[in-house]
Amino acid sequence: MTTLVVCLDRNDDVGRKTGLATPVVGWEAVRALVTDVGLADPEDSGVNSLLETLRVAQQLRDENEDVVVAVVSGERESIVSADRAVAGQLDELVAEYAPDSAVVVIDGADDEQLVPIVESRIPVDSVDRVVVRQARDIESTYYLLKQFLGDAELRQTILVPLGLTLLVFPILSTVVGPAEGAAAITTVIGLFLLYKGFNVDDLLTALTIKVRDSLYAGQISVVTYVVAGGLTLMGLFAGALGVSALEESSGVLIPAVQFAFDSIPWIAAAALVASAGRLLDELIRDEPLRRSFLNLPFIVVSVGLVLHGFAAYFLQQQGVIDPVTIPAFSIGLIQVSEFTASAGERLAGYVGTAFVLSIVGVRLTSYLRGPSIEDAELTERPDSE
């Protein structure tokens, strides 16, 4: 088996600097060519390509393979004439040495265009691309840019916004001024980066698919989600109304707590409706009901009570809302006098109710679910003793 180790030189740097005609064939001839090219231009990367060609040939010889070392160059007139010259020299090598395969050594993207010409004549086992260590960063940058420009998605993501920015900025600078134009463009770019950074497009696509599947499947959660969205908007509106009723000298913290105090009940109700719709969908299915869906409504209400209690605590401490007063009442022989709860007692009542409700949810979920799979296996397993 004969292997042709060929170094490709499309621009004829070898002939131009040494005056030698190609192909140059043979170990001694190529080694002498290394010296000639190095003396003519020590900075030429072709010297490294020739040395790599000799190294590969030596490695194959050590593995007891028949090796033919050659250097093939093109012409300087045109690209077509250069490629045809390389093709003719390869035909000469194939006719004279009849190689079974080839190892191609190149040192740049221009020489890489000759690889298909070699493949059309000889099976190519390997393409050895030589990168000079000092120029590795430059070469890597070039190939990264080449891959970038060849990727349609990256071009649309980077080049299109950059081009629009360069087009719109002069217009905005002329109409509203450079500072306002730069601020507007910076805002748009920031929103675009956040949009891409948080994968909003993927989230919207997944949401669209989910809504479509829900509509086609006739799920109840579609209706409950719409109701939950309406309740959320009502909660935000109620929070805004509560903030607008405060005095202007309230600062920042009190309006934020007031907004939470007024909006949390509506938002908790929205979450409760949404979770109830999801629970109903799970109940309609024939599959076993997951425990998380059963416990979710209790958790939602418990969290809402805790958050509402903390907001009420801060507002009552600042005198924004009145304390809770329980009027006097009697049950049979038991008489209870009027009771006014302090801020701490009010918070304790909310937190205690939330804990009780969450415990009830866990117990009820365990009861409705029955024994777990592990418990059932232990019950059915016979005693090994």
Can you describe this structure?
This protein is an alpha/beta fold and 385 residues long. It folds into three domains: 2-140, no CATH class; 151-198; 214-376, no CATH class. It has 15 helices and nine strands. A five-stranded mixed β-sheet has the order 2-3-1-4-5, with helices on both faces. Strands 6-9 form a two-stranded antiparallel sheet. The chain is elongated and about 120 Å long. The protein starts with a strand and ends in a 5-residue tail after the last helix.
Query: In percent, how much strand structure appears in the residues?
Result: 5-15%
Number of DSSP helical runs: 15
How many structural domains in the coordinates?
A: 3
**Amino- and carboxy-terminal Cα gap:** 72 Å
Give me the side-by-side strand order of the main sheet: 2-3-1-4-5
List segments where confidence is low: pLDDT < 50 over at least 5 consecutive residues: 371-379
| Broad structural category | alpha/beta
Gross geometry = elongated
Radius of gyration: 39 Å
